[in-house]
Amino acid sequence: MGTRAAPLSLGECDGDGIRCGYHGLKFDEAGNCVEIPGQTQIPPGATVRAYPTVQRWNMVWIWMGDPAQADDSTIPEYFWLDDTKWKAATGYIPMQGNYQLLVDNLLDFTHVTYLHKKTLSADPEEAKVPVKVDRGERSIAVSRWIFNHEAPPLFAKAGSFEGKVDRWQTTTWLAPSTLAFDVGCARADTGAVDGDRSQGISIWSTHLITPETDTTTHYNWAYVRDFALDDDNMTNIMHDGAKATFEEDVEMIEAQQERLGSISFDGLIDINADNPPLQMRRIMEELIARESTIQ
Ligand SMILES: [Fe+2]
User: Fold this and answer.
1) CA angle 44, 5, 32 (to 5 degrees)
2) Ligand 1 midpoint to CA 252 (Å)
3) pTM, rounded to two decimals
4) Is residue 181 within 8 Å of residue 204, measured between CB atoms?
5) H or E element: which one contains 238?
C-alpha cells in the first residue's frame, strides 16, 4: 500500500525504488519509505512489505513466504525461455478462478478432445491413450506417446507433415504452480521415441501460474518452439493458436469456480483422469502444512 491505501501497483519504477502513483512517496527495495515530496521528516513505520525476488529465464520469480525460507534452487530450469535456439510466443490471461483449478486442467490430458476440439484435436481415440504418471516429492510428470497418428492441426501446419506422425506429450508440474509441456511430433517411425527428433518439431508449452486471491489468478504462458526461429508469421500462428486454446481452458475454469462458490470438491465424484490432479492437491496440502509449522 502507498498513501491512503493506494496500491503501489499503480505507481512506477524510479531508479531502484517504486514511487506511489498517488502522492509520490518513494520506497526502496527493502520496502522503506525514502522520500515524501514536500516534507523532510519520514514518519517511523512508513514501510511496505518487501519480497525476495530473482530474475531468471526472462521472468521475475517471487517468494511470498517467510523470507528466511526463500531458496532459489527451487526455481525450475526453464532455459528455453532465454535461449537463442528457441523462440517464444507469450501471453497473459487474468483468470477469475483458483490457481489449482488451472493446475488440475493442465495435468489432465483427456480434456483436450472435448474442450479443445476447435483448436487442438477432436479425436475421441486420443482421450483413451493411457498416461504414465511419475510422482516426486514436489513434482508430478504425466506422459504419453501416440504412435502412427494424424498430426494435430497446429502441428500439421507448422511442420508441413505429410502422412502419419509419432507424437509425444509430457507435462511436468513443479510445486506450487509451474508446468512445462514437452510436446511435439515427428514423421512416423523415424526414431523419435528413441530420442531422434530430427524428423520432427518440438514445443515447450510453459505455464507460469501466480495465485492472486482464493478465486483469482495471474496466468502467464509461453509457447516456445525450436523451428522457424526467424519467421514472425510462425510466431503469430503459434501465439494465436495457443491463446485461443488457453482461453478455452480459462472459460471452463471460470465456470467451475462460479459453481464451486456453492459446492465443494468433497461432494464430487472422481474418475481415472483425476488421479494426477488429486496427487497434486495432496502434495500441496503436505507442503502448505509443513510451511505453516515452520512459520
Ligand atoms: Fe487445456
Assistant:
1) 35
2) 9
3) 0.86
4) yes
5) helix 232-260
Q: Is 204 helix (H, G, I), strand (E, B) or coil?
A: strand
Grouping H, G, I as helix, E, B as strand and the rest as coil, residue 251 is helix
Q: How far is ligand 1, taken at its centre, from the CA of residue 35, in Å?
A: 47
Distance 233 CA to ligand 1 centre (A): 24
Number of residues in the chain: 295
Going from the Cα of 112 to the center of ligand 1, the distance in angstroms, rounded, reads 6
Ligand 1 center–CA 246 separation, angstroms? 6
Residue 64 CA to ligand 1 center (angstroms) comes to 27
User: pLDDT digit string (tens) for 153-189?
Assistant: 778 888 888 889 999 999 999 999 999 999 999 999 9
Show Cβ contacts of residue 253 under 8 Å, excluding neighbours closer than 6 positions. Answer: 95, 97, 101, 102, 105
> ω before 176 within 30° of 0 (cis)?
yes
Residue 75 DSSP class: S
**37 exposed, middle or buried (CB, 10 Å; 0-12, 13-18, 19+)?**
exposed
